[in-house]
Amino acid sequence: MNSFRALTTLFLAGVCVLAAAPALATAEGRCGDPAERPWCKPSLSPDRRADLLLGQMTDSEKVSLLGGDELTGVLGGQGTHTGTMDGVPRLGIPRIYLSDGPAGVRSGQATALPSPIALGATFDRHAARQDAAVIADEVIRKGNDIVFAPTVDIVRTPLAGRVFEALGGEDPFLSTSLAVPWIKSAEGKGLIATVKHYLGNNQEGTGPKANEAMPGNPAISIGTFATVGKRGEIDARIDQRTMREMYLPMFEAAVKQAGVEAVMCAYNKVNGPWACENKTLLENILRKQWGFKGMTIADYGATHDTGASLRNGLDIEPWPGVDYGTAAITAALAGGSASMADVDRHVQRYLRTLFASGAMDREAFPADEDSIDRGGNAAKPAAIAEKGIVLLKNRRGILPLNRGKLDSIAVIGPVADRYFTGGGSSEIDPFQTTTALAGITKQAGSGVDVGFNDGADPAQAAQLAGDSDVAVVVVGSWSSEGIDRACLSLECPSFLGDQDALIREVAAANRNTVVVIESGGPILTPWRNQVGAILEAWYPGSNGGTAIGRILFGKADASGRLPVTFPRKESDIPTYGEPSAYPGVDDVVKYKEGVFVGYRRYDRRKIKPAYEFGRGLSYAKFRFSKLKLKRHGPKLAVKARVSNVGKRAGVAVPQLYLGLPSTNVKQPPRALKGFARISLKRGKGRQVKFTVDKRGLSFWNAGKNRWQVAKGCYRVYVGASSRKLPLRGKFGIGRKCR
Fold first, then answer.
1. For 178, 335, 419, 459, which has the most beta carbons within 10 A of its beta carbon?
2. How far is Cα 572 from Cα 84, in angstroms, rounded to an integer?
3. Which uninterrupted H or E stretch holds 604?
4. Are residues 231 and 350 in the same domain?
5. Number of domains the chain is built from
């Protein structure tokens, strides 16, 4: 077993060369004739159908279903699948195909969606449905049944390599609010969605080579550069309250509200056991407490012990089928570390999921990439990217640009004329791309001279800027699965050159300098007081340049909001200077900050960020008024009026925060409990309504092992961000509120 695992690791690192991936195959026929196969009757419940089918299987057939059957598809080659689960043709159990999917399909070319954190920045549930619909369409048209998405890991540290995949950034309410419609949309197309990573996969690992990581290196995705705090070695020590309030809510909502069919367990340990053999997580919480009926799937290479995984709740190992391969399971059964009853339980869950999702009853999705509407699919990600671009600064109203008043624009920077994205399982090879330079050039029109310099020679770039009316500097910050960032500077890693120095030189040459950031998460902005405007565009996807151009020229309002806090300096990061908290000591990572993650910590310690959670400027101007509070039993109703008092139409994103009373349990000063996204014409206003249920008013009482509403004074805040909250109120529960 160990030798095979080592071989596959070398394979993925690109050290050895294996045969080309097999061509995409057509799936076996689905269930069959109910007259001959009673389990094929759609009128029966999924559980009953799975039980009937299980009773017809031989032990060897059962064992064969639990491990994946394709090794090379993980490389993402054209005409492959990320994974394959062979079926049992004699019983109508079909071959099932699996696909990566948080930002698009990673097998050959596909439409590259904006990174999930860009979707998070939209604060838009409808955008989540649109995002899932595009991804699901291409996953299906490439012949797949299961999509590995969405990713709902919380941004505990902005250094983490997969921050760009975190749908809700640093807030569980935002993550939940977007994950639920995403899952419903994807599964509404007939796919099995897989929420991930369960649980505590909040870092990839770091080390002396972290700043040398380069895009396109397959060693990165399996963390061979990481030497400290590696995701596949650490034990995440998370107390029960922190787990319940910060890291579990998205998974719970995925199960209870969205009806997700699959949950992917993470690489790391959680409070001792590995996540993929953690009975507390996989059986007690997920199934007994939440009522999950679907299947659990291991992340690739995240299994360790066959017997422990079988006993404690892992259903499927999709790749590489080592610990759940026939030989390993047979050995575990013979040695007594697992029983055939364990195998039956996991096979039943797998079959039940196929029945419940409709995968057994429909025809196989044909692999027909030519049927993908590439043009139509490209337009939708551009619209999502547009909603997620965040205007962080706009001094003197430099934006939006008015091409009627411009003669020349200097577009500068190493990523201005290239498609730029993060690495790992969300790195998409796009059908087509529109770069920032192309998007700006199109919006500028024929009457404006657009010059370009890649910034390799800052002096030349500054000269071009000085000769132009406006300078737009497009910079990039690269992140990847498999390795954390060494720092938050644009020079971590440094392969794009000294971009901070480039920005300073350009800004010195032209006071009308706009910085566009394409990043996977927060960066340091030491030059923010020297430039006129800053746009955070995240990894905007294959048509991101269209969105950037439209925002810069005001064809759409700047309406994105930060799902993560941008610190002023490195030492403000919540885990800074605490090795036991990050990256860990002796492979133990202590979540000692508790629930004070992200803006909760900044607020508690009164640390001023560079740009706060929820921030996002608009080209319009909004006023908040008329706050009204009303209790309805265990629920709270909050109303407020938002008015556009600016000179043009715009998009407001009013946000509701609550401060729960601190009794014996310390509470964050504020926590997001509601948001809305509304378009308002000039001079118009609208009342927004928020409803907070009993759960939203509760904290996790670890001593009593339940949610509890505390007695005391609750503070209510409504405004434009976590720090700009002009409307304030309070109410008491069980006590008067003074």
1. 178
2. 44
3. helix 599-604
4. yes
5. 3
